[in-house]
Amino acid sequence: MTAAPHSNVPHAVPRRAVLAGAGLGMATAVLGLPGPARPASAAVTPMPLGTLLGTNHAAAAGPSIGALAGMSWDRSDILWAAVESTQGTYDDSAIHAFGTRFAAAAANGVTLLPVLAYSAPWAARTTAYGWSHWDVQYAVGAAQVDAGSGWSRRVTRTRISTGEVLQDEDLVLPKDKTPPADPARWLAFVDHVVTILRSTYGVEYFQVWNETYWSAGFWYGSPYEYIDQIHKPASTAIRNHGGKVVYGGWPSLAAIARFTALLNETNAWSSVDVLDVHYYKPSDLESLRVACVAALGSSLPIWQTEIGYSTSPAAAALVYPGLLHWAITRGLAQLPDGFKLLWYAWQAPASAPATGAGRYLRKADGSLTSHGVCLSTIADLFGGVVPETYDDHTNDAGLTTARDWASGSIEGFLVGGIKIIIAIHTPAGWAGTNVTVTLATLPPTAGAARVDLTGQRAPLALAGNAVTVALADEPGSVAASYNAASTIRTCYLEVSL
């Protein structure tokens, strides 16, 4: 998530002009996206890469997360149970504690996104309830044994089309993940929190709950109930105070088609300011964008407030280039708050097992995990700015700018008109040992290098406009260990112009 000279291009031709049309200017015209292709000579102020990047639960470290790739977003819960532990009595200190963190982060260029969640235990429904969704009938029995944080309840799920019983057992469902008995109490909580955070601290974006899908474990209720009784009322309250609504993070364990169908069925598109999903590939984001354009005529901002959390050491090197290339191509990365990628999560807790500690950006001792290292390398390759896309290249391995990654992929970027970065991803067990990449016309002063996951460079020889890149890392290197333990291995081609 840097060569043999050539005479293809006269020295008098500026390298920016040589590469005109290879970057985003051409992409906007070819793809029919808003805005004309800008001329190669147009002055552009590059957007800092960190404006698109963030993390989750940085806590006290929030103001300092910009030290890694310039990231500028953090995400944290505001729990209903903390604000209103007893019905009708608000503890505003919990809200102001968040506001103080928001202000401290903002003073350091970081935005803290509040997640308004979950049910206060006293507010959770205790009576039986049920619903049907996507050919499954759900039945949740009345609360029985109080297990402290949850109640024992009978849960039955039945396939409607066949009558097959998918599940029938007693489960302890968390009280805070159970729908509230009285949605009006939820709305009162939301309005109270938003009133303070908007008026006192200027918080603009608010996320409504998190991953409201049965098997995700954060919402044991109907998706329709979430939209109608949780999301829409909260959306109205947030907008009444001048805020913006971030959808509650649709999880990747449920298909994007189910998400878009839900928004269509409930007429909910217009109640969202930011579409947010978790752990999706570029192909899924494209499906979401297309559905949004069909519903509204243009795309809403699309964020992923959770990505990563992977045990594959090189996952960040796969996720970030692929998602960024898609967002830049679609014009979302260039819009204010049009696209965000927040890694889950910032730092491993001291209690994290060794097998899980590597999922984060930082280890418990504060040093970078493989994901943090890979992200730092990407930021260095991009010069800390959002690049343009560069798609005028071919290769002899059949790699394409795939949107699903599984079979390998390749993404090209043009950085400030001074270098081209090609990210090369191949699955474990890939038969080839090298990939030869052929680029568009290059200036005679161009040079090339292979760059590994840790930023180590090895010079490469250009043969005309082609260069052969070895897929294997230096034996015994840190990058070699990252790739060896990953399902997709990554390296970069850097061409200086």
Compose a concise summary of this entry.
The longest helix has 19 residues, at 183-201. The strands form 5 sheets. The protein has a 6-stranded antiparallel beta sheet with strand order 14-16-17-23-19-20. Strands 1-13-12-11-10 form a 5-stranded parallel beta sheet, covered by helices on one side. A 4-stranded parallel beta sheet has the order 2-3-8-9.
Could you please describe the fold and organization of this structure?
The chain has 497 residues and is an alpha/beta fold. Helix content is 26%, strand content 25%. It has twelve helices and 23 strands. It has helices at 15-18, 24-30, 80-83, 92-106, 183-201, 223-240, 256-265, 282-296, 315-329, 354-357, 370-381, 478-484; strands spanning 53-55, 73-79, 111-117, 129-133, 136-140, 150-159, 165-174, 205-208, 244-246, 250-251, 275-278, 302-308, 339-344, 388-389, 393-395, 409-415, 419-427, 434-439, 447-451, 457-460, 462-463, 466-470, 488-496. Strands 14-16-17-23-19-20 form a six-stranded antiparallel β-sheet. A five-stranded parallel β-sheet has the order 1-13-12-11-10, with helices on one face. Strand 12 (302-308), helix 9 (315-329) and strand 13 form a beta-alpha-beta unit.
Main attributes of the structure:
5-stranded parallel sheet; 12 helices; 6-stranded antiparallel sheet; 497 residues; alpha/beta; disordered N terminus
